[in-house]
Amino acid sequence: RQLVLEHDNWVSSMDISPDGARALTACDDGVVRLWRLADATQLAAVKSPGQPFNSVGFSPDGSTAILTSSEDKRVWLWDLSVQTAIKNPQTKAAISNQSDTTLRPFLDFNQFGGEVWASMFAPDGRHVLTIGGNDAQLWNLESRRPVMRYSPHGAVASAAISPDGRLVATGSWDHSAKIWNAATGHAIRKLEGGHTGYINSVEFSSDGRELLTASDDGTARLWNVETGKPTGVVFGGHTARLLSATFSPDGTRVLTASADKTARIWDRHTGKLLLPPLKGHEWAVLCAKFSADGKRIITGSQDATAKIWDAATGKEIRTLRGHTAAVSCVAFSPDGTRALTGGQDNTAKLWDADTGKEILSLPGHTQEVTSVCFSPDGRNVLTSSRDGTAIIWLAKDWRTVGRNVADAIRQP
Question: With contact defined as beta carbons under 8 Å apart, do 325 and 342 qualify?
């Protein structure tokens, strides 16, 4: 049978557990569902007592789910060992997941004051970072109390925790970023004067010594975390808003994608273009990712194509043609042998990354495919769509299955 995760409305958020065995989905019907990926079995479900949950995520060890409703200004924790209930953090009383049951949130910003737009687990798995309004806050999971508040700042659009958990960075629509002491909440330094537009993303380097910011002003910049000063490294060749900036897997390069129809690869240390811009798309580049080994890049564009590039030479290896509308999401398999694309033509497509041959077209959705991802072991992929479904597809050995979609998604 088809491995389809059926929903009654749009799927707004999803996540795959660290071990690749389970998935969480949030639906606009207000229900978060826990699934077993092997057979698409629903293990449990919980319903929001108010507005739908808009984001979900697993804890680093996979034992807990974090659920956020920005409209209700609340954050819930779900102990996944109690798969049919949410526990009230204060009373420890199990609450049934029936739709008529009132759930008590882990964090209620209606009582605290302020906004919550998103929340995430800290790398240590013992804290939660929330983002909303003009600040970010760190909460202790055991005590359910705020550990620290990183405020004031302008409207906080993004936040990140350093690899060692000692620092928090926030990026704001006031054109600045701030670095905070995670333990004391003191603003160590403000990173300003570098951008003239909204800062949309912040990312620590793997060694925690630098911060990468990307902005609507069309630039990305590196900052010295210790001093809060720009390193002088500016990735500034784009001619339109910068949609994303990320480090390569080995940390030596930065990849940016822009509405100016290009993606660019930069020397992380000098800010110089390592190669000419990756040109070839006829419209905005919507997404760009490195392969796990850093040797290739895949981009998706509004021109309805995806392209694979040699990350060492910048040469276009091949164009993946087959979508009839914009390619909105892309991914490489963990081993780099396959590429997956999702588009506004309601389909996902699997490609041989070495030959560019379309292996399968996956027409299971009836509206735009909004995200695609491989499980950590590469065995499955999960696609989500505005049609209210998330579908599990078999990602191993598809070449031997043939081009029949029904056979391809049958349990092995």
Answer: no
Q: List residues bridging with 170 in a β-sheet.
A: 159, 178
CA 319, CA 315: separation in Å to the nearest integer? 11
Cβ neighbours for 400, distance < 8 A, ≥ 6 positions apart: none
Contact 195, 211 (CB under 8 A): no
User: Residue 270: how many CB atoms within 10 A of its CB?
Assistant: 11
Q: Are 63 and 86 in contact (CB under 8 A)?
A: no
Task: For residues 30 and 36, give the distance between their C-alpha atoms in angstroms, rounded to a whole number.
Answer: 20
Q: Residue 380 is encoded by which pair of tokens?
A: 């499955």
Q: Is the peptide bond before 152 cis (omega within 30 degrees of 0)?
A: yes
Answering whether pTM is above 0.70, one says: no
**Dihedral angle computed from the Cα positions of residues 398, 401, 405 and 411, in that order, rounded to the nearest 10 degrees:** -80
Contacts 24+ apart (CB under 8 A), 139-148: 139/107, 141/64, 141/77, 144/89, 144/90, 144/106, 144/107, 146/112, 147/183, 148/180, 148/182, 148/183, 148/184, 148/185
pLDDT for 288-314, tens place per residue? 889 999 999 999 999 999 999 999 999
Tokens, residue 407: 């056979």
What was the pLDDT predicted at 380? 75
Is the model more confident about 49 or about 93?
A: 49
At residue 102, the pLDDT reads 30
Residues facing 100 on adjacent strands = none
**Residue 245 identity (one-letter amino acid):** A
Q: How far apart are CA 77 and CA 90, in angstroms?
A: 12
- Which residues have a Cβ under 8 Å from the Cβ of 111 and sit 6 or more positions away? none
**Residues constituting the chain:** 412
> How many C-beta neighbours within 10 Å does residue 302 have?
18
Task: Work out whether strand 316-321 and strand 390-394 pair parallel, antiparallel, or are unpaired.
Answer: unpaired
DSSP 49: S
